[in-house]
Amino acid sequence: MPIKHxxxxxxxxxxxxxxxxxxxxxQLGAQPGHTILEAGAATGYNASLLGRLVAPGGxxxxxxxDRDLVKGAEKNLARAGADNVTAVLGDGAAGLPEHAPFDRxxxxxxxxxxxxxxxxxxxxxGRLVLPMxxxxxxxxxxxxxxxxxxxKTVSCEMATFIPLRKGVCDDIYTRVRxxxxxxxxxxxxxxxxxxxxxIRTVLDQKQSKVYTGVKxxxxxxxxxxxxxxxxxxxxxxxxxxxxxxxFTPHFGWGSMAALDGDSLAYLTxxxxxxxxxxxxxxxxxxxxxxxxxxxxxLAGAIRDWEEGWGNTAPDPTFRMAVxxxxxxxxxxxxRFVIDKTYSRLTVDWPRKx
Length: 353
Known about the structure:
By secondary structure, the protein is α+β, with helices and mostly antiparallel strands. Helices cover 19% and strands 37% of the residues. It has a 10-stranded mixed sheet with strand order 5-4-3-6-7-8-9-17-19-18.
């Protein structure tokens, strides 16, 4: 539920879906007596729930960068009787060292990297829950705990959050509106190699379509394919929401797209039926100067995922390190290592049997 937009009409604060709120609270594992830092106060709703979980004896500090949101959260928290929750104006990524250590730190906004200063504000045995972009628009909500000099996940769930703003760990993205009919737009982030001016007209250019032979059936998730592609594609995947004539995305809201300079290739599907029943075959539609090459590359990556991992491989586990400890992290598959400005993220992902 949107609660604030910027001058261009872009949503910059919201209340998350109840399922996402519940998922993150389960990841956090807050207990009575805990001291908790929450980055992203919004309306104060999540902080109020945290206040109930840590009572008696615990306290919640919730931080936001916008004064109006902090004031609104204060009013809502007072009305809810959350007397063990304090709303503060500030940068959640910098934390509140004067009130540390915290047993738990939770981000209800997305980050492109690890807010390094916060790691020293966690108490021994503490846990950080952080929705972090892997590459492009692909997020996971990570629950990290210290494991020697590095950090490991005790939980990792698919979730997408509004990016951090105005602070030491801003996650800057550019929304590129496609010209012509409809309301299609492309999410791009600073690390992606894309010609944002040229890409505005890419959907008006001749398309190149290829189907992968990979079939998903009722209830099969897309999240593991998205995760794989986020690691192995140089620019990851970007959200491409909206509708327009001739645009045939794989979901009603829009699609996910691979980017390369002035070209993109987005996911589509076609329905069929075989001896097992109804299926949806994944396809790729490319546009731009490298349409055919990019579409084939994305299709090949999807086939590789299905052959090696698919939806039946064991769930992956993640490790993260900052500073000098980054060199300690390696992966059996070198594609499963992502170096960010402050951290290194690796995934250990066994192939299916």
